[in-house]
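User: Hi! I have a protein structure encoded as tokens and I'd like to know what sequence might fold into it. I'm fairly new to this, so please keep things simple.
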């Protein structure tokens, strides 16, 4: 509805944004750089953050920039099952048969990792999203995937992505062997307050306008309601533009944000 009103070519705050169109906040740039360093180390990384902070999006951004001939990335988001379920998901991502026992699945995955490193000369990267839901026995088994006897080099780069609860669990004694092997540990927070105006303008520009539709009072209200979490910002900004149109206005103020917030809560 508001696209025609503001002469926009698309919805500015749609979640289906291309990785090259992302607005990189200060914290997002820091995470991006740390991920690049992790890929050089070929170790285990832990990324945590609140729901909607952009953890997965930044990971996809980094992955999209990797040379496909040098890296082989596997992405797994099925994390609520047992060890067999997760191993089957990993095997399926690797193009391996899943009709095997747990021990043969484990062996096949390890062999594929070695093949990629030694024969294909590709660095395997395994990203496990929503890792806060992984059972303890799965976390223990994932650590075993990174173990290669008589080989001092790390072959698998394992990235665990999840909410803050994951960090607390991994710091417990039962996971000390895994915790000690984590070489990159970062908690992603939301946009800083002084970044929000640029974020909103960036998304509006992607939609075809350089108008500053959001007034300072609206920007302040959006930040207070969302703590700068991109997913919440996008949702509230979208409904705020709707509120402007319904009020037959040309710019968004704090009242429009409050109307939008009441609608979505």
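Assistant: Happy to help. Inverse folding works backwards from shape to sequence: for each of the 265 positions I chose a residue that suits the local structure. Here it is:
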């Amino acid at each position: 509805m508001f696209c025609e009103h503001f002469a926009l070519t698309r919805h500015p705050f749609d979640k289906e944004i291309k990785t090259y169109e992302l607005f990189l906040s200060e914290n997002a740039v820091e995470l991006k750089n740390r991920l690049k360093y992790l890929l050089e180390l070929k170790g285990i990384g832990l990324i945590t953050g609140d729901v909607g902070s952009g953890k997965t999006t930044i990971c996809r951004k980094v992955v999209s920039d990797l040379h496909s001939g040098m890296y082989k990335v596997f992405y797994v988001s099925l994390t609520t099952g047992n060890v067999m379920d997760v191993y089957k998901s990993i095997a399926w991502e690797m193009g391996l048969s899943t009709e095997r026992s747990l021990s043969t699945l484990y062996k096949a995955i390890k062999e594929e990792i070695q093949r990629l490193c030694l024969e294909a000369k590709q660095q395997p990267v395994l990203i496990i999203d929503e890792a806060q839901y992984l059972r303890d026995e799965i976390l223990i088994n994932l650590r075993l995937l990174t173990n290669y006897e008589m080989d001092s080099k790390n072959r698998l780069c394992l990235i665990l992505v999840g909410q803050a609860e994951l960090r607390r669990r991994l710091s417990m004694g039962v996971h000390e062997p895994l915790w000690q092997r984590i070489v990159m540990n970062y908690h992603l927070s939301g946009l800083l307050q002084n970044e929000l105006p640029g974020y909103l303008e960036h998304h509006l520009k992607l939609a075809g306008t350089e108008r500053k539709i959001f007034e300072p009072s609206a920007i302040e209200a959006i930040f207070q309601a969302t703590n700068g979490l991109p997913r919440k910002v996008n949702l509230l900004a979208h409904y705020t533009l709707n509120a402007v149109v319904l009020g037959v206005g040309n710019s968004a103020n704090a009242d429009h944000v409050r109307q939008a917030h009441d609608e979505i809560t």
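A useful reference point when you look it over: The CA atoms of residues 66 and 89 lie 23 Å apart. Feel free to ask if any position seems puzzling.
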